[in-house]
Amino acid sequence: MKVVYMGTPDFAVLPLRELVNAGYEVTGVVTQPDKPKGRGKALMPTPVKEEALKYGLPVYQPDKVKDPAFFEVLKGLEPDIIVVAAFGQIIPKTILDLPEFGCINIHASLLPKYRGAAPIQQAVIDGEKESGVTIMKMSIGLDTGDMISKVVIPLAKDETGGSLFDKLAQAGAKLLIDTLPDIFAGTAVYEKQPEESPTPYASMITKQMGLMDFSRKAEELERLVRGLSPWPSAYTFLKGKNLKVWNCEVGEPVSGQEPGTVIRSGKDGICVACCDRELILKEVQLEGKKRMDADAFLRGYQMEDGTRLESHRP
Predict the structure, then answer these.
(1) What is the spatial distance between Cα 150 and Cα 8, in angstroms, rounded to a whole number?
(2) Separation CA 16–CA 177 (nearest Å)
(3) What global pTM score does this model have?
(4) Which of 227, 3, 277 is nearest to 123 (CA)?
């Protein structure tokens, strides 16, 4: 069977590797165009492109996959199936209908929950007890196609967006290899999704989402910190400087303290008032400084009780 693979970020690397290791004929790899990075703005290949080149696979990087000229290129690859994982562009119906076995997507959630661009981080932020991967047959709707197979992954108490990302990438690669034989044999069961998702659409993550509003519940902010680690990270402002928060825990109930006020600080961390409880910052990074635990930070920074952490730069 001939496979065309479409993917871009780190999440999509392992499924491609497993396809090759399983002996599938990958006739082409489609990924996003190289982008300039760093001070020198040198063009950097996508993680999937780097992986494809290791195996000598032909790589295609169309600006827009809906371009009719690219469709002709894709048709020439004669795919029996197209496998998509975090590609980054909407796949048009002409491509969805091209292969005999259609296009399948490796989606990092237990559909129909968390349709959208950032299901991994959102599951942590929302306090879900489990997440997983769904292999689905793609349709013109956004993550609305028929479900083929799933794997459930429980979330650890200290789960971060980064740790869950790694778990789901591995689980998705294995699930793909387990599912393809059933698709090709015609024994796969296709389950329709309900029209409405039980959870809100998981929008693309932005840096602004990490801004900590201490008028919220401490538990919500603790989950926000974990969900947005390692990127883009949660943050607040300390005397006009960006203060990233890498690790924290929920403390005791508070009353009479304005949210965002530092109640105390010491070896155990920086204790900040939220609307209901303390949030104890355990690991932080002040703008221009290294990431460090709160104890080390406080040895070089005088933090007085009553100091305000703000939700904006003054």
Answers:
(1) 22
(2) 10
(3) 0.94
(4) 227
